Structure formats: structure tokens, C-alpha cells
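Hi, here's the filled form for the chain we discussed.

Project: internal
Contact: R.S.
Residues: 169
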Amino acid sequence: MYDTAVDFFYKKNKNVQFMMHLKKGDKAPYFEGLNEDGKTIKLSDYEGKKLILYFYPKDNTPTCTVEACNLRDNFSLLQKEGYEILGVSPDSSKKHTNFINKFELPFSLLADTELETLKAYGVWGEKKFMGKIFDGVHRTTFIIDGKGYIEKIINKVKSKEHSQQILEN
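And the returned structure, exactly as it came back:
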């Protein structure tokens, strides 16, 4: 059986590039998963708070590390502006723990090994790199308000300037 229409579409159309087109003002898709400590994290945990939900391909890769460290280096400023941060990738909780410890990240990372959250947000799909075509994570950030609605979507993330992109109106 299929949990959602998104699952149904994706499982029936595996050869189709799949990108759900969420937009500003849409209700953020529900998510639930384990963080680096094995604790269940869900969208409702951020009720009443502004959430930076950022999707990235893989822990300990150059661009993903630059992005995470930019958010780390600007964490106090982002918190001062009322933001919470949650990163999501298909890596395991154990890999997330190592990544967090290595770079002293002050925020949680969600392990989406089953790709449920990635697909719900439409950030899993066909990619091209060095002439190869494969399925992977499209680096994307969603800013979600305290009521669970999408305030902003950053599709063209600049890893070195990510915090500034978040704070721009």
C-alpha cells in the first residue's frame, strides 16, 4: 500500500524525474525521523518556532561541510532572529553523529535513510554530475513559520553564503 499520493506517484513512475513543486504559503509536509542521537524529531516539535529545514546530499563532503559550517558560524545570529535549524540527508544517525562531532555543529541532523522526507519535500530526484545521471538530493532549504507554513524556499543554495541567503527578504 502507498502512504501518500507522493509515494504512489514516485513508485509508479520510477523513471520520471520527480520534483514536487512546493511554494511559499504551502503547508509544510509532515516529517518524522531519527536524529543523530536516535531521538524522534517531527515537524510538530517546531510549532511556534521558525525552522530552517535544509536538505543536503552527504555528510563530510566538501560543499555540504562548507554549508553546515556556515550555518554553525552564524548559529547565534540565526537564533537571535528566532530560527531553529534542522539538516536532513539520507545518511545514517551514526554518520550524522560523526559529522556533528567533527565540525562541532550546534544543531540536529535528521537521518532520512528511507528517503521519506526527501521525497515529501520534492528534493530527491534525477541529478547530473560529471556526465553521470543518478538519483540524489537537490540541495534546498525551506524556511517554515511557527504555524507550519513555508515562508521561503532557497533552491540555489550558495554554501559559503547560506546564512545570508536565509536572512535576506
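Let me know if anything looks off before we file it.
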